[in-house]
Amino acid sequence: MWSPTSQTAATDTLISIEEGALADVLLPKTLSQNAQIGKLGFEAKCATCHGLNAAGQDGVAPPLVHIIYEPTHHGDETFQRAAAVGVRGHHWPFGDMPPVEGITRGDVTMIVAYVRELQRANGIN
Ligand code: HEC
How far is the CA of 102 from the CAs of 41, 106, 110, in angstroms? Predict the structure, then answer.
């Protein structure tokens, strides 16, 4: 079940805790225009596995809001490659990620903008 986000008064972020999620993700209060577009793409093409707010799904796919995916370790091109040709499972016990059908480099650029803004709200820079 999806549980509603609740506001934490003292900060400029919202926290989202999804059932089955592998990470508690702080949500930025605002997203850039590109990130807003990316959020739609993410929810259409990635969230079925990586979970809402990229918080991961137990037994399915990892959270992308995770220190492993910080920009210096998994740069933006990693995301492009993952979408275009898939990923051989190596960091997690969830198996391979298949290539994502029906998505352009431009779409992935927006998705990366979204994931980076989520990461930054969680101190992953
Ligand atoms: C069918 C399920 C599934 C879908 C859909 C999916 N992923 Fe993945 N993804 C995975 C799994 C599983 C892994 C973990 C591989 C591992 O063990 O390192 C992964 C890993 C990744 C990685 C890490 C790549 C690396 O080199 O380690 C990135 C980036 C990524 N996904 C981005 C995306 C994006 C962006 C989308 C949507 C466009 C997406 N994924 C859709 C299952 C999925």
Answer: 11, 12, 15
Provide the CA 35 distance to its chain's centre, in angstroms. 11
CB 93 within 8 A of CB 81: no
Asked if 32 and 40 count as a contact pair (C-beta separation under 8 A), the reply is no
> Model confidence over 83-119: pLDDT tens digits?
999 999 999 999 999 999 999 999 999 999 999 999 9
- Tokens 């225009």 correspond to 33
For a substitution probing ligand 1, which of 97, 116, 124 has the most ligand atoms within 8 Å of its CB? 97
**In contact, 54 and 118? CB cutoff 8 Å:** yes
Tell me which of 66, 87, 112 to substitute to probe ligand 1's pocket, judged by most ligand atoms within 8 Å of the beta carbon.
Answer: 87
**17/97: higher pLDDT:** 97
